[in-house]
Amino acid sequence: MKKLIIKDKLNRPLRDLRISVIDRCNFRCTYCMPADKFGPDFAFLPKSELLTYEEIERLAKIFVDLGVEKIRLTGGEPLLRKDLPILVKKLSNIQGLQDIGLTTNGVLLPRYAKELKEAGLLRVNVSLDSLNSELFGKINGRNVGVQAVLDGIQAAQEAGLGVKINMVVKKGLNDSEIVPMANFCKEKGIQLRFIEFMDVGSTNGWKMDDVITKKEIFELLKKHYLLDPVEPDYFGEVAKRYRYEGTNIDVGFIPSVSESFCSSCTRSRLSANGQIFTCLFNGDGHDIKEFMRQGTTDEEISKRIKDIWSDRKDRYSDERTEETARNRKKIEMSYIGG
Ligand code: SAM
Ligand code: SF4
Ligand code: SF4
């Protein structure tokens, strides 16, 4: 099949794809899957509802033919999905796909990093919201200490994977950790991304007041470091990046709330249960799994994806208000993967 460029109603091409491979997680982060809402009785998806690796591979090939250059695997916790390196291997054989990344909480990396790298994974984004084990244990809801994640980061580096750290910042929760995390990452030469707390799903009790904006974090960092702005590497790069003066180490921001970037959003999402979402905040997914399981041809699937993308008008973050955050139907982060 020939590679196409398809554009949505706001002229945005389809360039990247996030695939959530599982909705389960070994953490219960307060801002994502709060333990009181995702308790022992929570009904996660049965295996039959998850896309198989063969189905993901088939869809990924079709997406790549439609212009996708980058794929990121996520979850839930993607490393809980059995034999993930097998999927990575399948994806890394797709002609025209330029980049495969993984977003993970990191604790299973010591077990899988080497295999993932050998299978063709290029980079991992590891989520770490505090360097204080007591606080981190509270945030992740499972009392997991910081060392487990640091071991994961080390394993990824030793395996030769690119590593970035993602830190979600929520007011009153971990703002005290901004400077220590920046210090740590600068010292270790690891790229850090500060992520504004977002109103994903409907369980995390989001309020605008809880958001620490990029500007606030930046002002704080400027008291400690000299920072030079870095030009974006490509159209649609989400992180606003800066470089510590005199180094080649970046620190970035994902200012989804305070400086939305919908006009350059080129991302489609495939949820763990096989639905396509055209926006992190658009609760109306488009089924592709059942459609596929009816014996549909690649051409029919491709046309369906093309139609979904061509019809896309989402610009939720540009339009966000307290009201939309509260009342809009949204998909949970664990289904769609950030
Ligand atoms: N379990 C993996 C992890 O934590 O990296 C992958 C899935 S997680 C849903 C993907 C990313 O979404 C993580 O970087 C996480 O910090 C971020 N995230 C989750 N809930 C968020 C929220 N309410 N606001 C901003 N980022 C959030
Ligand atoms: Fe799990 Fe990641 Fe959500 Fe934390 S952010 S609960 S690790 S899916
Ligand atoms: Fe993309 Fe939706 Fe986020 Fe805007 S709100 S950047 S359209 S995912």
From TrEMBL:
Its cofactor is [4Fe-4S] cluster. [4Fe-4S] cluster 2 binds at residues 262, 265, 279. GTP binds at residues 18, 72, 103, 164, 267-269. Residues 9-231 form the Radical SAM core domain. GO terms for molecular function: 4 iron, 4 sulfur cluster binding; cyclic pyranopterin monophosphate synthase activity; GTP 3',8'-cyclase activity; GTP binding; metal ion binding; S-adenosyl-L-methionine binding. Catalyzes the cyclization of GTP to (8S)-3',8-cyclo-7,8-dihydroguanosine 5'-triphosphate. It comes from the Bacteria. [4Fe-4S] cluster 1 binds at residues 25, 29, 32. The keyword Lyase applies. S-adenosyl-L-methionine binds at residues 31, 76, 127, 198. Monomer and homodimer. SUPFAM superfamilies: Radical SAM enzymes. This is GTP 3',8-cyclase. The gene is moaA. Its EC number is 4.1.99.22. It comes from Cytobacillus dafuensis (Bacillus dafuensis). It catalyses: GTP + AH2 + S-adenosyl-L-methionine = (8S)-3',8-cyclo-7,8-dihydroguanosine 5'-triphosphate + 5'-deoxyadenosine + L-methionine + A + H(+). Pathway: Cofactor biosynthesis; molybdopterin biosynthesis.
